[in-house]
Each structure stands twice: as structure tokens, then as C-alpha cells.
Design brief:
By secondary structure, the protein is an alpha/beta fold. It contains 15 helices and nine strands. The strands form three sheets. The chain has a four-stranded mixed β-sheet. Strands 2-3-4 form a three-stranded parallel β-sheet, with helices on one face. A two-stranded parallel ribbon has the order 5-6. The chain binds iron/sulfur cluster. Iron/sulfur cluster binds next to loops.
Length: 371
């Protein structure tokens, strides 16, 4: 495969090995740092593995983001969405406003509500249970992908219960899957700079495992391109790989490239402009090589990359386009290049142009629907 390509013997050895077995952290670090034309064989290998593992379907879900509040006590350095409670732009949706959003999405065929927001100072377990009951009472057939490990850990503390007990209650109230947000970069060094108030690495791992133990599967994410090193990107993916080997509880892996323009750390003078295009491609390709069929679904965040580059990333090992979203205000606040709503037709066009098959899915990749 590599005979005609400009590739070093070390890169060739690692790529050849990756076709049949796991690559090590050291080998992943080598791939993450290759430059120039060597990138092409890496992308081709990741795309080949994607084809072997999940075939040529590209999935996405008809979903709707309901960002119930932007009031947040955590205030991460990368986030342009969270606001102090006394900020003139601060809000919290009431029941009527939440149902209005849900109603619009459900009448448009939404299969999932994504409940995400800030870490509100008054949000305890009763508040999150209320949101679930409100939506499940009115839309029992729409699955709920909701909350973050930080929110749930804080709410359990506020309500005087342990995390396992909290997830049992959330599951009974209708929480179907847990977004793997708040992971950002799973090294305490980086977290101390970008999100010191969030759960630590150990707490994030403990929280997602507690959810998975009661049967709430969920996504794993990485938010990269800010203050972390290349080695920390690999370290993060390796942590996700280890958890999945132990629990099998992740439904997908979602790399999210840092959008610097409106982030507090950028506005305060931190000069990192985010990952470059080839860094994005290498992140996806190395993720495919490290996760292989252990986490078969690797999702492109078109809302962060824009439609055109998201389509290119589908040739670097990814097989899922996320969702139609229906208003992701966190990404909108960060400057989403192509907006935060996509029609099924828009996503399908990108996929068909690659010669692949657009397929709608449910939250857990267990049901698929022809378009
Ligand atoms: S990323 Fe989430 S927790 Fe962090 S400031 Fe934004 S809304 Fe708050």
C-alpha cells in the first residue's frame, strides 16, 4: 500500500501495524507529529479502517438542542456561552419555553432532545429531574441525551447523595444517554488552565463510569487546540480507550476543535488560535487508529468545522455527522462558521457527494432509518 507514497520506514511500520492491531501511545504520538506528504498515507489508512469497521454509511440524528440556561458558576476559559447570573444576557428557560422548543422539534421529526446548559448555582437534582419529567411526560418517544458530568456531580453534592444514586434517579426519570462533555482535555495540567472549577480527571472518569454502571451509555469527547500539548491529546484518547476496554459504555467519540475567537482565554491574551486543518485531520485519523472497532463511531462536529471541512474529515476516519442540532447555543456563542442548524438534505448532500450513504440513526446507534 505504501510503496509509491513518500513515507518514512517508522511511519510505514506503524500504519501497517494499525491495520491489524492496536497502536501504542508512543506510536500515536509519532503519527500526531508527522508533517507534509506523510499525512496522506495516515488519512488513507484511517479511511480504510473506517471502511473495514463500519462500512460506507454516514449516520446522523434528527435532534434538537435545548440550552435551558446560560447562567454558569464554572466559567471555563474556552467558553463564550456561560454568563454570570447578573449579566444582562443571562437567561433560564421556563417550562413553557422549553416545551415550545421541544414541540417545534418533535413536529419536525426529532428523535432526541439534547439538554445542555450552564452549571446554574441553584440547580440541584430536583431541577434536573423536573426537566426530564417535563419532557418525558409530553414526548415519551423522544430520547433524552442530557446534562454533563460536572452538572450531575455538583447536583448530587447539593442534594446530599452519591453519584450512583443520582444516576439511578435520572435514569428512572427518563435520562437515556449522557453527553461526554466536560472532558475537554483529560490532564489536570491543562484543566487547571482552562477549567479549574470543573471536575478533575479522576472525577470525570468516576462520573461517566457511575452512569455506565446503571446502564446510561453516552458519548466521549475531546476538546483540543487550546493550551494542551500533542502528547496530551494522545493521553486523552488513551484514557478514553482504557475506559471503553473496561466498560464498553461509550457510544461514540466526538473530537471538538477549539473555537478561539470569542473565548475568554483568547480575549484575555492567550494567543493560541486553535488547531490547524492538518492537526484536525490527524486528530481524527489517529483517533480511528487508536479506537478501531472499540468505539466504532467517530463523529465530526460540522457545527464547529463548517460543512465543507466536515466533509473532508469524513475521509479521515470519521463515520458520523452528529445531528441536525436545532440550535446549539454553546457553539453559536463561539462563532459556528455555518450556523447551528442543518437540514437532513444538507447533511445528505455532503455524504452522497463522497459516494457514501446517509442514514438517520437513534441516540445509541441501535436503530437506523433510510432517508
Ligand atoms: S463550558 Fe459549560 S461549564 Fe464551562 S463555562 Fe461554558 S457552560 Fe459553563
Amino acid at each position: 500500500m505504501f510503496d509509491e507514497l513518500p513515507v518514512s520506514s517508522k511511519t510505514e511500520r506503524i500504519l501497517t501495524k494499525s491495520l491489524d492491531e492496536d497502536i501504542s501511545v508512543e506510536e500515536a504520538n509519532h503519527l500526531m507529529n508527522i508533517r507534509g506528504s506523510e499525512i496522506h498515507p495516515l488519512l488513507a489508512t484511517a479511511d480504510f479502517l473506517r471502511h473495514q469497521i463500519v462500512g460506507d454509511n454516514v449516520t446522523f440524528i434528527n435532534n434538537c438542542n435545548i440550552n435551558f440556561t446560560n447562567i454558569c458558576t464554572v466559567r471555563c476559559g474556552f467558553c463564550a456561552f456561560g454568563k454570570d447570573a447578573d449579566d444582562p444576557d443571562a437567561y433560564i428557560l421556563n417550562d413553557e419555553q422549553i416545551l415550545e422548543k421541544a414541540d417545534g422539534a418533535a413536529s419536525n421529526g426529532a428523535r432526541e432532545f439534547t439538554l445542555m446548559g450552564g452549571v446554574h448555582p441553584d440547580a440541584d437534582m430536583d431541577y434536573y429531574l423536573h426537566l426530564l419529567n417535563l419532557l418525558k411526560d409530553n414526548y415519551p418517544d423522544v430520547s433524552i441525551h442530557g446534562f454533563s458530568p460536572t452538572m450531575i456531580r455538583d447536583a448530587c453534592l447539593a442534594s446530599g447523595m452519591d453519584v450512583a444514586e443520582g444516576f439511578e434517579m435520572l435514569k428512572s426519570a427518563g435520562l437515556d444517554t449522557l453527553p461526554g462533555t466536560a472532558a475537554e482535555i483529560l490532564t489536570d495540567r491543562s484543566r487547571e488552565i482552562i477549567c479549574p472549577e470543573k471536575v478533575s480527571v479522576a472525577e470525570w472518569i468516576d462520573t461517566v463510569k457511575a452512569a455506565q454502571e446503571v446502564g446510561i451509555k453516552g458519548s466521549a469527547t475531546i476538546m483540543y487546540g487550546h493550551v494542551e500539548t500533542m502528547e496530551e491529546r494522545v493521553e486523552h484518547i488513551d484514557i478514553i480507550r482504557s475506559i471503553q476496554q473496561e466498560t464498553g459504555g461509550f457510544t461514540e467519540f466526538i473530537p471538538m476543535t477549539f473555537m478561539h475567537e470569542f473565548s475568554p482565554i483568547f480575549l484575555e491574551g492567550q494567543k493560541n488560535l486553535g488547531a490547524t486543518g492538518t492537526q484536525d485531520l490527524k486528530l481524527y485519523a489517529v483517533s480511528r487508529l487508536m479506537l478501531r472497532d472499540l468505539i466504532p463511531n467517530i463523529q465530526v462536529s460540522w457545527v464547529k468545522m463548517g460543512f465543507r471541512f466536515a466533509q473532508v474529515v469524513l475521509t479521515a476516519g470519521a463515520n458520523d455527522l452528529g445531528g441536525t442540532l436545532g440550535g446549539d447555543e454553546l457553539s453559536e456563542a463561539s462563532g459556528a462558521p455555518d450556523g447551528v442548524d442543518a437540514s437532513i438534505e444538507t447533511l445528505s448532500r455532503m455524504v452522497k457527494d463522497l459516494g457514501r450513504n446517509p442514514i438517520e440513526r437513534n441516540s445509541t446507534y441501535t436503530e437506523f432509518y433510510d432517508i
